[in-house]
Amino acid sequence: MKYKRILLKLSGEALMGQKQFGIDNNRLVQYAKEIKEISESGVEIGIVIGGGNIFRGVQAERGGMERTQGDYMGMLATMINSMALQAALESVGVDTRLQSAIEMKQISEPFIKRRAVRHLEKGRIVIFGAGTGNPYFTTDSAASLRAIEIDADVILKGTRVDGIYTSDPEKDTNATKYDSLSFDEVYDLKLNVMDMTAFTLCRENNVPIIVFNMNESGNLNKVIKGDKIGTLVA
């Protein structure tokens, strides 16, 4: 295996599967089986999942709600997704721990770096919920921050598309894919890989990012082995 410890970033929207809203159980089970496969090969796995399938802070602003309130609602949405993923992983026999940036002692541990690392060393999958615990930060920022804190080798950003393109491939049929990019190239070309805060954290701490299609079965395992899947930013 090319990577010993990873931070897997999943979008909330990816959990919708074919639905317009909420969680598709079939997609959840698919993810759980693929994550189990790489866990059994000895890879240590931290996971951050978004909440966009349930609620986003920016939605709240459009509806006239205060952004801070909306962002906290978004953090709770990530906890719903995190609990769903935890249940799916445990249903296929994987030992997991859920840690939250906001204290919710009935359903999760508080995020404590040393405890998280200990869980990883014992082979448990750690899901990090509630973003960074602060408004105005995305779950991309949470993924970057947690990756740095647990000393992950790489951030694997699982999306619906198979890498980074010159423009949105779902809208532009002429969009071409990059196999690899430097951090500077992403800045210069103004490519939307992650939000700028998250991206800058990765750049300053030399954490590579691989953007790949998580919905294609087997891709996660291929990325872990070092196959040329998706787009590498390093």
Mind sketching the topology for me?
Layout: E1 5-10, H1 25-40, E2 44-49, H2 57-62, H3 67-91, E3 96-100, E4 109-110, H4 113-121, E5 125-129, H5 139-149, E6 154-159, E7 164-165, E8 177-178, E9 180-181, H6 183-188, H7 196-204, E10 209-213, H8 219-225, E11 231-233
Parallel strand pairs: 1-2, 1-6, 2-5, 3-4, 3-5, 6-10, 9-11
Antiparallel strand pairs: 7-8, 10-11
Helix pairs in contact: 1-3, 5-7
Short key terms for the protein model shown above:
234 residues, two-stranded antiparallel ribbon, alpha/beta, single chain, Carbamate kinase, nine-stranded mixed β-sheet
Reading the helices and strands in chain order gives EHEHHEEHEHEEEEHHEHE
Helical stretch count?
8
Task: Please give the order of strands in the largest beta sheet.
Answer: 4-3-5-2-1-6-10-11-9
Q: CATH superfamily assignment?
A: Acetylglutamate kinase-like
Tell me, rounded to a whole number, the average pLDDT.
94
Beta-strand portion reads: 15-25%
Rg (C-alpha, Å)? 17 Å
CATH topology, by name, is Carbamate kinase
Oligomer: single chain
Largest sheet: 9 strands, mixed
Structural class: alpha/beta
- First-last Cα distance: 19 Å
List the domain count as a whole number.
1
Say how many strands there are.
11
Kindly provide the name of the CATH class: Alpha Beta
Dominant shape: globular
CATH architecture: 3-Layer(aba) Sandwich
Share of helical residues: 25-40%
In the predicted model, the low-confidence regions spanning at least 5 consecutive residues are none
